[in-house]
Amino acid sequence: MHSISHEEDLSQPQLSDKPTGFPRINVSLLGRQISFITIPELLREVEQACQNRQRLVIAFFNVYSFNLALHLPWFDTFMRRADIVPCDGSGILKAIKFLGLRLPLEYRTPGTVFVPELLRCGSDLDLSFFLLGAKPEHLQTALQKIRKDYPRLNIAGHHGYFDRDDAQQNASIVQKINQANPDILIVGMGMPTQEQWIAHNMDNLDVRVIIPCGAIIDRLAGAVPNCPYWISDVGLEWLYRLIREPKRLAKRYLAGNLAFALQLVLATAYSRPLKVSRAALKKSKLKLVDGSSVDLS
Fold it and tell me: What are the tens digits of pLDDT across the range 71-125?
């Protein structure tokens, strides 16, 4: 693992030198903690964890993962154990607004935007990466494109699909990752498979930062197209993806979005389902919407 020297600090500004004007806000939504943090601030957290050799697990909350946390106890436990749980998707932002707290789009931190930025910054800071997951052909294509776009990036290792139920094969993968000793492990197995694998193997992994990122390797390979920004910015990425893959995603988006909305409506009838630190709200200079269902502490 490369450590950044004092001389490098003087010659090259670090991410921590770039304030965003959007302070981190930790919010409790239906008892689940969400870290509203901008991409530059999240990059800073990764940089500091790598420099200080500290473990950092980043997981992402969108409507689908939120529903999983409500219905799968082990998944809920994993999300609670994660160090930072950013908002991935406009659905969560809309839920927060419905309950009375309007947050700007800068607090939306989708993995599809964050990971390319992480690769770019990782190249500048000489951080090493291990990519795990995806079909072998997609992984190879992604590696080719990454090496073309970030020629100085240190890809310490990679591996595609494997039999997670095979204890011997799984142990071999963990050993391969530890031998590569990467700063950052990106796991792209799809949700919730990737979270389950990380939960089972987290304590045996010798890496600084662990990030489950769904189909990010397929997206880097171009096998799965990214949603255009003008669609995602108005909160319709779910519709874009549903139109592209109706059979696979109909239950997730149609039934899942409705279930999530009903949870919010029912929660407002019996309690204040959104909790925000009064100090954090004051620091951010954000105001509550009239008729909010926010519990200030």
Answer: 999 999 999 999 999 999 889 999 999 999 999 999 999 988 999 999 999 999 9
DSSP character string of the chain: -----HHHHHHS--GGG---S---EEEEETTEEEEE--HHHHHHHHHHHHHHT--EEB--B-HHHHHHHHH-HHHHHHHHH-SB-BB-SHHHHHHHHHHTB---GGGB--HHHHHHHHHHHHHHHT-EEEEE-S-HHHHHHHHHHHHHH-TT-EEEEEE----TT-HHHHHHHHHHHHHH--SEEEE-S-TTHHHHHHHHHGGG---SEEEE-TTHHHHHHTSSPPPPHHHHTTT-HHHHHHHHSHHHHHIIIIIHHHHHHHHHHHHHHHS--EEE-HHHHHHHT--BPTT--EEE-
* CA–CA distance, 201 with 8 (Å, rounded to integer): 34
Q: Is residue 153 part of a domain?
A: yes
Q: How many domains does the chain fold into?
A: 1
How many CA atoms within 13 Å lie on the side-chain side of 111?
22
What tens digit of pLDDT does each residue of 35-84 get?
Answer: 999 999 999 999 999 999 999 999 999 999 999 999 999 999 999 999 99
Residue 197 inside a domain? The answer is yes
Judge whether 123 lies within some domain: yes
Domain containing 216 equals 21-296
